[in-house]
């Protein structure tokens, strides 16, 4: 006679519950018996109806895809080697098209602003080194009549420097050439002998002093 292994078994004394068998005898430990599982066919049928009720449109789309796969396999002449597994159809994804690298032009760096927001320009030329006249071109690129101040600096022999200023009013979109004559100084004669025309000898800085009138259309 084979002895049942230790564990929970149907209680021979009370139907509907289980009693623990320790391998040698019944103990006093009992518990309600687990309900019997429904038939396998009934479980599958209930799951199918529940699935179809929730995702009916999705089931329809899948059914169409399967039909196409079966039709393609039948048209191939019944050769098993030419049939495409249905699962592989769902796994196929369109290949991504490689994108070509395009060179994006880098923006050119903005010009450094002039000190204090002023417009800086070197002297275009000197009309006469002996008169020490500094000329500079000023253009009003805005849309407001503006008053500009031109400061000129002359560098003389021996490291001395002489400064002079001049103000000018320019209409929008207009430009003017402004000349400033160096004031007479005691060392002017010596300066004449060593003076050389060029940007290194004359520097003009244009500063916006004030605006006149209202803004005008471009």
UniProtKB/TrEMBL annotation:
Domain DUF2510 residue range list: 6-38
Region Disordered, residue ranges: 74-119
Keywords from the named record: Membrane, Transmembrane, Transmembrane helix
TM region positions: 54-75
Domain of life: Bacteria
InterPro entries for the chain: DUF2510 (IPR018929)
Full protein name: DUF2510 domain-containing protein
Source organism: Nocardioides marmorisolisilvae
């Amino acid at each position: 006679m084979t002895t049942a292994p230790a564990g929970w078994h149907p209680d021979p004394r009370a139907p509907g519950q289980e009693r623990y068998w320790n391998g040698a005898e019944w103990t006093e430990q009992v518990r309600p018996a687990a309900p019997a599982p429904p038939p396998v066919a009934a479980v599958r049928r209930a799951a199918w109806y529940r699935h179809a009720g929730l995702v009916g449109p999705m089931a329809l789309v899948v059914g169409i895809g399967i039909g196409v796969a079966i039709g393609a396999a039948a048209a191939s002449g019944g050769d098993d080697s030419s049939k495409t597994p249905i699962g592989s159809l769902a796994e196929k994804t369109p290949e991504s098209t490689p994108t070509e690298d395009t060179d994006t032009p880098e923006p050119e760096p903005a010009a450094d602003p002039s000190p204090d927001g002023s417009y800086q320009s070197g002297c275009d030329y000197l009309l006469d080194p002996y008169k020490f006249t500094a000329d500079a071109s000023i253009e009003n690129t805005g849309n407001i009549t503006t008053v500009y101040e031109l400061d000129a600096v002359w560098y003389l022999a021996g490291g001395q420097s002489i400064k002079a200023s001049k103000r000018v009013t320019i209409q929008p979109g207009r430009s003017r050439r402004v000349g400033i004559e160096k004031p007479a100084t005691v060392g002017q004669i010596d300066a004449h002998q060593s003076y050389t025309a060029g940007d290194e000898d004359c520097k003009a800085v244009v500063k916006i002093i004030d605006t006149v009138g209202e803004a005008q259309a471009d």
